[in-house]
């Protein structure tokens, strides 16, 4: 049942809180976002690993001319297991800027502990999971438990701005294989009851409808871009849902979604008929649907509406991220994580997909099954970001039980003095 591992981690709570508080003191903001990068934080992590009795970290430095040291660090610590198969837990060191500092009740980069929470930038995203992974490995080490698999803790750079100097760099370096078990604890919910194994494609498009602006009293002399846009948007919505009705119950909602979102201001006064309208669609498309096919339907409807109305309708793709093959729900990494979650929380987690997108997609794109899981408050990137201490402790237990593997390793004798 893993009672001894769980009990031991409960006793480590104060150490975990102290370490996360220290971690928050390193403002690892990307040099591409006005910061100094992750090097100082990486040095702190490397030191903490040694203090916890874990092996010395490997440094895999991605060249980056904008960084003060001209590189972005990625750390890997490897803990031998009873088998050669590898279990990776991948967390990121970088954080987003604090934003408007007047919205913070405390200093963003000086941890504050109150009411069972640790406040500070990066406390939740991704410091909570980073510290949990270290203390999970330390718990096994201090109890003389040999992990079931080789445990590889990986602390990456650049997640917040696309992972070019982090996960993408490490994948290109050939450090992962399709046999690896990969957990990316960089997303989750308050309950910790959801394991993400798939993502929809993301397509953001902007439409510009150009007609002819005239006085409100003489619409016959113009071409009302507002009316044309309204009619076009409704036809577009109907055509897309008709063309792509597929469902996949792995996702919630199970359909592809084509949502009108932003609409820019047109004219400033009521009595002017606008000659230009700009609006956007946020599309989250099931993996079974080809994104190029979606764009073809959009372009067909636009061309048809151009001929009917006489307006000019142009499309701009603002973002496109095609989905990758989902991690199978019966993959070993899913089973291992599910068992550990059930052991800690006494419920079976839901396996499903999200609207997109997480950095686990980089692994899936390269044929490496990966899962995303965490128990965390939805406060990432917000002022007064915080980590729930109970979440931190629970995640540490889950990671430790995953590392321990088979149940016959769960009940070693505790070391003296514990």
UniProtKB/TrEMBL annotation:
Cofactor(s) needed: Zn(2+); Co(2+)
A Pfam family matched in the record: Peptidase_M20
InterPro entries named among the record's database cross-references: ArgE/DapE, Bact_exopeptidase_dim_dom, Peptidase_M20, Peptidase_M20_dimer, Peptidase_M20A
Keywords: Cobalt, Hydrolase, Metal-binding, Zinc
Domain Peptidase M20 dimerisation: from-to ranges: 198-305
GO MF terms held by the record: hydrolase activity; metal ion binding
NCBIfam families per the UniProt record, alphabetical: DapE-ArgE, PRK13983.1
Homology family: Belongs to the peptidase M20A family.
Record-given protein name: Acetylornithine deacetylase or succinyl-diaminopimelate desuccinylase
Annotated organism of origin: Aminobacterium colombiense (strain DSM 12261 / ALA-1)
Source lineage: Bacteria, Thermotogati, Synergistota, Synergistia, Synergistales
